[in-house]
Amino acid sequence: MIEVATLVDRCRRGDALAWEALVRRCQGRVFGVAFQYMHDAEEARDVAQDVFVRVYERLDGFRGDDSFVAWIVCMTRNACIDRLRKRSARPPASDLPVEAGLDIASTAPGPEEAAAAGDRARLLHRALGQMSDSSREMIVLKNIQGLKLAEIAGLLDLPIGTVKSRSSRARIELASRIRCLDPCFGPPNGRG
Amino acid sequence: MDCRGLVERLDRLLEGRLDGRERRETDEHLSHCPSCRELTRAAGTTWTGAAVEPPQGLTASILDRTSGAPCDPARHLLCAFVDRTLPPVDRELVRLHVMECEGCGSLARVLAVMREELPVLAEMRPDAGFVGDVLAQTSHRGARAAAVLERIREAWQGLLLRPRIAWESAYVGAAVLALVFGLPGSPLAGVPHEALELASLNPVAEIERPAARLTSRISTRASSAWRVTREWIEEASNELVADASRKSSATAQNIFTDLGTFRERLTSEPMKSDAGRPQDGPEPAEGDER
């Protein structure tokens, strides 16, 4: 598989095939982040499209020594915040239609495992939907998208220590909510 | 081994951690020391080493009366415990707590599962036409420049359409004026004062007076320069005329002299030619006729 850095480098030189490959490689991640913020597949799609257009325009401004994934996640997050601001108010967390249009990029080997993984993903989404915006954002950036503490600190303009403690609190909160929703939640092969 | 030695190894005796030699020494001492047998019995074991089970809930009641339940500090460390980033001692302490505390134990299990399953949510599939739509918006020529221009235009329009743009412009203008003219170190700091002074006088007269002075000065300079120039031209032309007349009279004199000489020669020349014509040139030689 071609590295993202190579694709980005070729995109900067105007390689249309590399750009298509980059879009295909990153579309799931961008759409996933957008969905976590917008909670609506259509809106997430619009945001993801805008993000890719913006990425295309600003590829020259991307510094090669940064993580491209972190860069594109930050850009997606900012685009979502902009759109939510234009809406003037965020929808209440309890009304989020988190199960609609959810198509997780699953790696489960068979159909049964894929269905079970889908159920678990929906449960996670429902628990995420019950969290506060700031806690959910921590989970999305740190535990779902895998950004480093320093990257999140730069993105949210917070000290690293604050990010660390908030992230830890958010994980505990999410775990508590999952336990309330499904007291039997555990490893996939350990459930009765 | 004496009684003091037994007291020193009492903890390890209760926990069953004595090695073979220590165990033999302890047994031998306990067999003949009733006070140490009493001590070990009171400490919760017989000298044969069989531990007494503590009653249910003893630890919890002791903790309630002392430090309180350790769940809160344990939960602060629970994420690091699941991530395996705790130092060994802390990790062991949390592990012991999690084994005994049902609430923290189930939380730790959920956290461990979350650690594996949350990254799966990182990518979600948009619909099949997504890539095509993105490529259509980005791949045509000039899309980048057009999009940038459009973005600038939108941003500018958004800026201008805000209701408070007039106030903001006024604030910015006032701030610029204050910075340019109001600061003590500014090169234009004195300009407003001078302008006020000028306005308090008659500005037209103030402007006309130096202008009139300048005009008369220029006029005087110009007339004197013209006078000098005219005199110089007259002198030069007189000299030229005098020189030309001098030269022409000398030339005329020469011409007259030459003419006189020529007339004299003309008057004397025919007599000479009549008398000696054959002597004008040497006689041609005999061979020259060929």
What is the end-to-end distance of chain A?
39 Å
User: Residue ranges of chain B: pLDDT <50 for 5 or more in a row?
Assistant: 279-290
CATH class of the largest domain in chain A reads Mainly Alpha
Judging by the overall fold, what is the CATH architecture of the largest domain in chain A? Orthogonal Bundle
Specify the structural class of chain A: mainly alpha
- Radius of gyration of chain A, taken over Cα atoms and rounded to an integer in Å: 18 Å
> In percent terms, what proportion of residues of chain A is strand?
under 5%
CATH topology tier name of the largest domain in chain A? Rna Polymerase Sigma Factor, Chain: A
Q: What would the average pLDDT of chain A be, to the nearest integer?
A: 82
Describe the structure concisely.
With 192 residues, chain A is mainly alpha-helical. Chain A is built from eight helices and no strands.
Task: Provide an overview of this structure.
The complex is a heterodimer of chains A (192) and B (290). With 192 residues, chain A is mostly helical. Chain A is 68% helix and 0% strand. Chain A has 8 helices and no strands. In chain A, 34% of the residues are buried. The model of chain A is unreliable at 92-98 (pLDDT under 50). By secondary structure, chain B is mainly α. In chain B, 73% of the residues lie in helices and 0% in strands. In chain B, α6 crosses α7 (88-100), α6 runs parallel beside α8 (102-117) and α7 (88-100) crosses α8. The longest helix of chain B has 73 residues, at 203-275. The termini of chain B are far apart. The A-B interface holds A 16, 19-20, 23-24, 27-29, 31-32, 35-36, 41, 44-45, 48-49, 52-53, 56-57, 102-107, 117, 120-121, 124-125, 139, 143-146, 167-168, 171-172, 174-176, 178-179, 183, 185-187 and B 75-76, 78-80, 106-107, 109-127, 130-131, 133-135, 137-139, 143-144, 147-148.
